[in-house]
């Protein structure tokens, strides 16, 4: 499959087959994410795979409560959940850049790395869904993350049990301009 085909065919999968994902495939996805660029090459990300059924159930019952409960059933049915974690501070250069620009570069780095992860998953025949609707404080406590590490993204990974249609996209001329907005 070409990169264009991978990008064109990738969809958010919310229904998964009840088949475990081999760890070798998850490692290939993490390898792709590891190669993602990051601000000042800080490489702030770490990926915590939750594929043990009981642990995944405990995790979901912890982070998908209250207003976040709408995502719990979907997450429970995913064979693997990947917590995309990142050091919020980064290197001294990154921290200085954040102070000057007001941009939280670790969030940008998490996004780039997570996209590498899901594109590789698509390439391997896996489905994925980004989840941002969970309680990050409870996830941090559950995963026993260090004080300077945050989890802002969860990736549900598994073999797709649905084939969602393409979502409408704006025409290229609406999103692309040259030399001025």
Structure description:
- This protein is α+β, with helices and mostly antiparallel strands.
- Helices cover 43% and strands 16% of the residues.
- It contains eight helices and four strands, in the order ααβααβααβαβα.
- The protein has helices spanning 3-9, 23-34, 53-63, 72-77, 92-101, 105-123, 136-143, 172-175; strands at residues 45-50, 80-87, 127-131, 149-158.
- Strands 1-2-4-3 form a four-stranded antiparallel beta sheet, sandwiched between helices.
- It is globular.
- The mean pLDDT is 95.
CA radius of gyration is 17 Å
The stretches of 5 or more residues where confidence is low (pLDDT under 50) are none
Span between N and C termini?
34 Å
Apparent shape: globular
Order of helices and strands: HHEHHEHHEHEH
Number of strands: 4
In DSSP terms (H or I, runs of 4 or more residues), the helix count works out at: 8
Structural class: alpha+beta
Beta-strand residue percentage = 15-25%
């Amino acid at each position: 499959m070409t990169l264009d085909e991978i990008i064109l065919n990738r969809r958010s999968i919310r229904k998964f087959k009840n088949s475990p994902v081999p760890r070798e495939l998850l490692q290939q996805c993490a390898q792709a994410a590891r190669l993602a660029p990051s601000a000042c090459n800080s490489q702030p990300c770490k990926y915590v795979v939750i594929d043990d059924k009981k642990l995944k159930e405990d995790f979901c019952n912890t982070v998908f409560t209250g207003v976040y409960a709408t995502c719990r059933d979907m997450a429970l049915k995913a064979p693997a959940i990947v917590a995309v974690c990142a050091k919020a501070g980064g290197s001294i250069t990154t921290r200085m850049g954040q102070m000057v620009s007001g941009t939280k570069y670790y969030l940008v780095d998490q996004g780039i790395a997570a996209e590498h992860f899901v594109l590789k998953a698509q390439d391997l025949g896996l489905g994925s869904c980004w989840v941002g609707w969970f309680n990050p404080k409870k996830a941090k406590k559950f995963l026993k993350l260090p004080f300077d590490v945050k989890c802002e993204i969860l990736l549900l990974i598994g073999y797709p049990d649905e084939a969602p249609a393409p979502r409408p996209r704006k025409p290229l001329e609406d999103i692309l301009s040259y030399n001025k907005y």
